[in-house]
Fold this sequence. Notes:
The chain has helices at 11-23, 50-54, 107-120, 144-157, 171-177, 191-199, 214-226, 254-261, 270-274, 277-289, 316-332, and strands spanning 2-5, 27-32, 37-42, 59-63, 83-85, 88-90, 96-100, 124-126, 161-164, 180-183, 204-207, 232-236, 266-268, 294-298. By secondary structure, it is α/β, with parallel strands linked by helices. It has two domains: 2-63, Alpha-Beta Plaits, CATH 3.30.70; 83-332, Alpha-Beta Barrel (TIM Barrel). Phosphoenolpyruvate is lined by residues 102, 128, 132, 164, 184-186, 207, 237, 269, 272. One of its GO terms (molecular function) is 3-deoxy-7-phosphoheptulonate synthase activity. Residues 1-67 form the DAHP synthase ferredoxin-like domain.
Amino acid sequence: MIITLKSDTTQKGIDQVVQKIKELGFTPHISKGAERTIIGVIGENAIRYRNVFEAMFIVESIVPISKPYKLVSREFKKENTKVKIGKVEIGGKAIVVMAGPCAVESRDLLLEVAQQVKEAGAKILRGGAFKPRTSPYSFQGLGKEGLKLLAEVSRITDLPVVTEVMDPRQVEMVSEYVHIIQIGARNMQNFDLLREVGRGSRPVLLKRGIASTIKEFLMSAEYVLSGGNYDLILCERGIRTFEDATRFTLDLSAVPLIKKLSHLPVVVDPSHGTGMRDLVAPMSRAAIAAGSDGLIVEVHPRPEEALSDGLQSVIPQDFHRFMKEIKSIARVLGRGS
Ligand code: PEP
Ligand code: MN
């Protein structure tokens, strides 16, 4: 349930309610809005204690949350969540584009791509050091060495970086090198991993599972927020359908729907979502038009030599071109930088 406190409630009043929630064995989650403080009471059947809180004079109203996800829901928080990474804000007015190679392959390649995508207007550098490959014989990523390169290139270019973590035991180590932790589609329901990043302090980019419903996606997001980490970005990256002409089916309707159901920022990955270089620009334009807060795009200067996902990697010149189109669309929607 959600407890909304009266607008003149003091910190002492908030503390009293929090204390009561804990005494009853539930977990309080506080959301301080511009006018009112809302406290989410998380735990099974919390609503049966409604009377206890209704009796407190500082409580304005109590609303049960009927959805299985609570903290990620719009009911819990009306305002959009803005995730801040240094000077970059995801979920605010401006569209944020993350771009870079699928995998960190070498220092030179990473630096080259980073400079090119920055020049084109990307605000965050992407690159995988631990790669979840379908085949155990495919390039698995440079591991810790790749993280060091990401950190170095981030310092040189002043771009924050996002990278995937696959193992809960590596969350702490990866967090030392990068700014955003990515949970890949294949790990969307790795609950130990979700709990681990939920305990952490790094912002998280959670990708939708390849066969997951939006409800399941939001339940996974709930794991992260319920651990105390509210800095979560959701990423639509395509789902498996009967269609095999594209690598996945990019579900763009998920964008406005999730924005309705949740306060969290949503970005779109047109690279994995289509698997086809030529479709990346049009689907990026469509994603921004559909209300996406940003994009995550694979860029490689020589896709034919890429160690992973060359077929869907766009070359920097094309990336540059479609970034201009995206900026125009964003401006029309009042979302220019
Ligand atoms: C990636 O972004 O590098 C990746 C592997 O994506 P996904 O988990 O969406 O397949
Ligand atoms: Mn990839």
